Each structure stands twice: as structure tokens, then as C-alpha cells.
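Q: what sequence does this backbone want?
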């Protein structure tokens, strides 16, 4: 049986892009999930400020056993437990909360807390974070990633989130970003699944091009 950490590690090797599906409804979960998973995405996040997020997580967890499915905008310990109960294996937060990380670790989940400073980054790692979400990336720069990685433990995954598109991924990657969270550039409420699929392919092509280069 593949563990959440094993799924995360495999995705980080193959396509380290987190699909942030903010606003997704359970009725869309299958079609939008297909549009993202079939081209190659393996990291799926349903923010908890979406309609009926636990239903969407449960649906996608069952439909896409090969993917690491979970929640974003996780702010409290009870939410971690509810995500786990729905079958979720991934906890993503906009902030660093040691209690949230500890509960995710206790439940065997992958945890990516949001950080901006070295203090937050080291605190999150000490609490057991699997990797770090640099958020919001619009307030940072590739130079910030490079500076953080110079002092963080070797191999720490730092993933910028916010304002990331196919055209600017290469500069962040060159600075050492291990992957990215992709939000409204990939999916937003009302977007047709076919359009989501087209954009998913663009992101995959951009990432593949970076690696090839």
C-alpha cells in the first residue's frame, strides 16, 4: 500500500505541481479531476472555503487513488481530523500553525504549511512539516527562495504559491523552487473541464521544458 509520503515523494519527482481547486463543487469533482489527473497532475487540493469541500475530497480520493488528495486553507486541528475522515491525505495551510502540523503528522498525512520568513520556515520544519509553501509568492521573489534554501536543511521542498503561471515558473525553478501550487490560472469556479485540461497541459509542458533545459 502506498503511503501519503510515498505518493508525495513520487509526485515531487515526476510533476511537483499542486492543483488548487478553490471553489470546486462535488458535482464538478469528477470532471475537473479527470481534466487534471489524466494529463499528469498527482497533487490535488480542495480549499476548505469551497462548497462542501469534504464531499469533493471524498469523491476524488475514491476516483483517483493514485493521486495525493487533500485540503487547503486548513486552519485548525479539528479541520485536519475532518479532512482525514473524508479520506484526505494532504494538508495545506496559508500559515504556520504548529498544532495543525502536529495533528497532520500524527495522522500520517503530508503537511505543507504556508511560510514567508526563515523563522516560520524553521518553526514549521521543527514541527514536522513535509515541505514548505512560500505564500503569497507575490510578496516574495526567486531571490527569497534562493536565500531560504541557503540556510534550510538540504533537500527541503520549497513551493511558491500565488501568481505562478507557465511563463514565470522557470525563474523560480532556477532559484531552487521544488514545485508550485497552481490556483486560478488552472481552475476557477465556472471554468469548463475542457479549458482546465488545456491549461493543465500548458503547465505540464512548461514544467517539462524547465527540466529538459
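A:
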Amino acid at each position: 500500500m502506498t503511503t501519503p509520503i510515498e505518493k508525495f515523494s513520487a509526485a515531487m519527482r515526476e510533476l511537483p505541481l499542486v492543483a488548487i481547486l478553490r471553489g470546486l463543487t462535488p458535482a464538478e469533482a469528477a470532471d475537473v479531476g479527470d481534466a487534471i489527473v489524466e494529463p499528469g497532475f498527482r497533487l490535488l487540493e480542495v480549499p476548505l472555503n469551497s462548497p462542501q469541500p469534504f464531499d469533493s475530497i471524498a469523491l476524488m480520493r475514491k476516483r483517483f487513488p493514485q493521486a495525493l488528495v487533500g485540503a487547503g486553507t486548513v486552519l485548525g486541528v479539528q479541520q485536519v481530523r475532518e479532512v482525514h475522515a473524508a479520506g484526505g491525505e494532504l494538508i495545506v495551510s496559508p500559515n504556520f500553525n504548529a498544532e495543525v502540523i502536529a495533528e497532520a503528522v500524527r495522522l500520517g498525512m503530508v503537511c505543507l504549511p504556508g511560510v514567508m520568513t526563515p523563522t516560520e520556515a524553521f518553526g514549521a520544519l521543527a514541527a514536522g512539516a513535509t515541505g514548505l509553501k512560500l505564500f503569497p509568492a507575490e510578496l516574495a521573489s526567486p531571490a527569497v527562495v534562493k536565500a531560504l534554501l541557503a540556510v534550510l536543511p538540504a533537500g527541503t521542498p520549497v513551493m511558491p504559491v500565488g501568481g505562478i503561471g507557465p511563463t514565470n515558473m522557470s525563474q523560480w525553478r532556477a532559484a531552487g523552487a521544488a514545485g508550485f501550487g497552481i490556483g486560478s490560472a488552472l481552475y476557477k469556479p465556472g471554468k469548463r473541464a475542457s479549458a482546465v485540461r488545456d491549461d493543465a497541459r500548458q503547465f505540464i509542458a512548461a514544467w517539462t521544458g524547465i527540466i529538459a533545459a
